[in-house]
Amino acid sequence: HEGRLWGGRFAGGPAEAMFALSQSTQFDWRLASYDIAGSRAHARALHRAGLLTEAELAGMLAGLDRLDADVRSGAFGPAPTDEDVHGALERGLIERVGADLGGRLRAGRSRNDQIATLIRLYLRDALAEVGAAVLEVVDALHAQAERHLGVAMPGRTHLQHAQPLLLSHHLLAHAWPLIRDRQRIADLDRRLAVSPYGSAALAGTSLGLDPEAVAAELGFSASVPNSIDGTAARDLAAEAAYVLAQIAVDLSRLSEDVILWVTHEFGFATLDDAWSTGSSIMPQKKNPDVAELARGKAGRLIGNLAGLLATLKGLPLAYNRDLQEDKEPVFDSIDQLLVLLPAVAGMVGTLTFHPDRMEALAPRGFSLATDVADWLVRQRVPFAQAHEIAGACVRFCEQNGLELSDLTADQLPQIAPELTPDVLDVLTVAGSIASRNGRGGTATAQVRAQLAEIATVLAEF
Ligand code: ARG
Which reactions are catalysed by this chain (predicted)? Predict the structure, then answer.
């Protein structure tokens, strides 16, 4: 049957278009080394069950080693007649050890438990790689935050000036979601560490094979308690797609800040030449393409997640061929992030900040109004009234073309009798920042504590 894994009950082969639709080697070949690892463990299980002699096991393992070497060197690859990675590798094994021995490996397993196992093995490795790349971005944010500790900037809500912040505090606010993403990967890995091998087609294996032994040999912590679930579930692929999409969304939000900061109007930062691009017509341009591609790819990764969930939602138990559609979206999300993350780390790590510009803007837009209100509260004025008085200060400044920090001692009584010249002491960016000294606040000591906390987290991974 030209290397096909089925055919006994068919009088003829599949139509060309049928085969073209069915074929998956173009994307599942990346699972080849995991398929071979699974085959080694399965061969040992067959041997323990008395279905392979000592000599047959040795021949099988030697054949698998040769096949593995040929796959790695590129000497062996899928042929146009191979339907999927499993069929291609069985053909390769038979070419190396003969049909009598090679044809024995498939006993007691199905492509259904194979593929479900391979995707978990692959995801465990690929997500670890993504996780390491995520921590490189965290590292870049941490280094910039450390380097610029003490630099003030305008903090915004609704994109409007709100209260002054330390630049470091803002940068670390982008680090924490990425740290949680790394933790999500670690958490998901515990669920991925359960092997479906031995579930066979759906009902479990009948040949006395030991799924727990196979699981242990493949580095899993257990095997699945339910063979139907083992072959039919893809929630873990969807969870991976979610974590990957969340990483992209977190990079996208960071990128949106960078895109704003490097505009002429903000002028908070300049991109390094190595991490920006020019225009083919406008000679002056220096564009934030890394950040824009991050923002763009976030949409793509959200699509991969949404598409996979839509594929899964109507499927009855157990295995359905629809499940073959789980791979490309997840592979794509991983591939995109493995290209994107190093670029974002490079962009962030090489940004040049302009502290003078940020500090000049920090008190603008009446961003010290809360400090006036808080000062009044410390003078025992009820907060509701303090809010009114601080609002009156803003109105006064707006009418006279002033900022709150421009107010003078003789102007204060015109606004409200509660305002004594002492209030001028809090009308500074440095005073405002220093006053927010509770845990998690923007005061320098708190930001220094965060830097230490992140360094500890980074050391743990
Ligand atoms: N290519 C299939 C997948 O990705 C492997 C399992 C095929 N099983 C089957 N009975 N056709 O899901």
Answer: 2-(N(omega)-L-arginino)succinate = fumarate + L-arginine
- Token pair of 24 as six digits: 């998956």
Segment 2-26 mean pLDDT: 87
Q: What is the tens place of the pLDDT at every residue in 65-124?
A: 999 999 999 999 999 999 999 999 999 999 999 999 999 999 999 999 999 999 999 999
**β-bridge partners, 195:** 223
Could you tell me the two tokens for 300? Answer: 């793509």
Q: What residue's CA is closest to ligand 1, atom 11?
A: 321
Which residues are marked as active site? 158, 279
Q: Of all residues in the chain, what percent carry a pLDDT higher than 70? A: 99
SS3 track for 340-405: HHHHHHHHHHCCEECHHHHHHHCCCCCCCHHHHHHHHHHCCCCHHHHHHHHHHHHHHHHHHCCCHH
- Of the candidate CATH numbers 1.10.472.80, 1.10.275.10, 3.40.30.10, 1.10.472.10, the domain formed by 16-107 belongs to 1.10.275.10
d(CA 362, CA 56): 76
Residue ranges lining ligand 1, Cβ < 6 Å? 24, 84, 111-112, 115, 321, 323-324
The candidate with the shortest Cα–Cα distance to 78, out of 17, 23, 137, is: 23
The yes-or-no verdict on residue 380 having pLDDT over 80 is yes
| 90-96 contacts, C-beta under 8 A, 24 or more apart | 90/3, 90/5, 91/3, 92/67, 93/39, 93/60, 93/63, 93/64, 93/67, 96/63, 96/66, 96/67
User: What are the domain boundaries of the chain?
Assistant: 16-107, 112-202+221-360, 369-427
321 C-alpha to ligand 1 centroid (Å): 6
Residue where the block lists tokens 């797609």: 241
CATH class, range 112-202+221-360: mainly alpha
Residue nearest to atom 7 of ligand 1 (CA): 111
Q: Give the separation between CA 302 and CA 265, rounded to whole angstroms.
A: 31
pLDDT tens for each residue of 417-449: 999 999 998 899 999 999 999 999 999 999 999
Count other C-beta atoms under 10 Å from residue 446's C-beta. 17
Q: What digits encode the pLDDT tens for the residues 273-295?
A: 999 998 888 888 899 999 999 99
Calculate how far, in angstroms, residue 50's C-alpha sits from the geometric centre of ligand 1: 28
ipTM of the complex: 0.95
| Residue 309, number of CB atoms within 10 A of its CB | 15
Residue nearest to atom 1 of ligand 1 (CA): 324
- Looking at residue 162, its amino acid is A
What values do phi and psi take at 187, rounded to 5?
-70, -45
